[in-house]
Amino acid sequence: MFSFKQFTVQQDRCAMKVGTDGVLLGAWTPIFHKPFNILDIGSGTGLIALMLAQRSHAQQIDAVEIDEEAYEQCVENFEQSKWNDRLFCYHASIDEFTEELFEDEEEYDLIVSNPPFYSENYSSGNDKRDQARFQEALPFDELIESAQALLSENGIFAVIIPYKEEENFIDLAQSIGLFPLKITRVKGNHTSEIKRSLLAFSRIEQEPLVDELIIETDRHKYTPEYIDLTKDFYLKL
Predict the structure, then answer these.
(1) What share of the chain is helix, strand, coil (3-state, %, to 5)?
(2) Does 236 map to a domain?
(3) Distance between CA atoms of residues 56 and 49, nearest Å
(4) What is the three-class DSSP state of 56?
(5) Which range marks the domain in which residue 42 is found?
C-alpha cells in the first residue's frame, strides 16, 4: 500500500508498483486547457488517473488496463477514492479500446501514459512484471496511433519515457500530426545523466518549451523544483 495526501494506492496485485515515473507524469502533465475528460493508457494501479482527479475538474477520467489483476486493483483504488464518481477503468487492450471508441467518435482532451519501455531482450523471471515493463506489451507506435485517433482537436497527449527514446518518439508522433508542446528532461541529481523525458504533444506545430528537472541534491534531499512539483501528493513533502 502507498499512501498519498489525498488518496491511497493498493498495489499488491500489480506488477508495476508506484514509482517516481508515475508520480512525475501525474504531477507534471499540463492541464492549463482545463480538460473535460481524460484517458490514462496502461493505468496499472490507477495512480496517474487518481493524481489527475486531484489536480483537475475533469468530469470523466477513464483508464484502460490489459492485465486482469492490475485492472481489478485499479477499479478498487478508484472506488476507494473520493473521486470515484469521475473515475472508470476498462479491461481491454488499447487496440480494442481505441477501435470501439473511434467508431463512437469519442475523444479525450487529455491522454496520458507511463508506457512499458524495456525493449531489450531481458527477463526478470517474473512474466507479469516483464509484460508490464516491456515495450512489446505496448509498442510506442501503437500508443501514439491510439492517442492520435482519440485526442480532441485542442487536446494534449503526455508521456514519460527513457531519454534515449526521446528523439524516436517525437519523430513517430510528428509523422502522424502530433507535435511537442513541452519537453522536460529528468536527472536524478546534478551530476547524473538525463534518464527520463516528460513529453507533452498537441495537434499544433510550435516551438516546444524545453527545460530540465533535477530530483535530488543529495540522497533523499530533494531539489526545490521537485518538492514544488510533488508536494501536493507526497506525505513527507
Answers:
(1) 35, 30, 35
(2) no
(3) 10
(4) coil
(5) 2-230
Structurally, how many domains does the chain consist of? 1
> Could you count the other beta carbons within 10 Å of the beta carbon of residue 9?
24
Positive or negative: CA dihedral 82, 47, 153, 210: positive
Angle at the Cα of 128 (from 185 to 234), degrees rounded to 5? 45
Do the domain assignments include residue 237? no
Model confidence pLDDT, tens digit, residues 127-136 = 666 555 554 4
Q: 230: closest CA among 87, 11, 28, 14?
A: 28
Listed in sequence order, the residues at least 6 apart from 145 whose beta carbon sits closer than 8 Å to its beta carbon are 98, 176
Find, among 40, 42, 41, the residue nearest to 16 by Cα. Answer: 42
Residue 64 lies in a domain: yes
Letter for the amino acid at 103?
A: E
- Residue at 235 is within a domain: no
Backbone phi, psi, residue 164, to 5°: -65, -15
Return the pLDDT at 131. Answer: 56
CATH number of the domain that 222 lies in? 3.40.50.150
pTM comes to 0.92
Which DSSP letter does residue 4 get?
B
pLDDT tens-digit readout, 180-206: 999 999 999 999 999 999 999 999 999
List C-alpha distances in Å: 133 to 21, 113, 141.
Answer: 12, 13, 16
What cell numbers appear for 159 in the block?
508521456
How far is Cα of residue 191 from the mean position of the Cα atoms in its chain?
A: 26
**148 within 8 A of 202, measured Cβ to Cβ:** no
Separation CA 57–CA 59 (nearest Å): 6
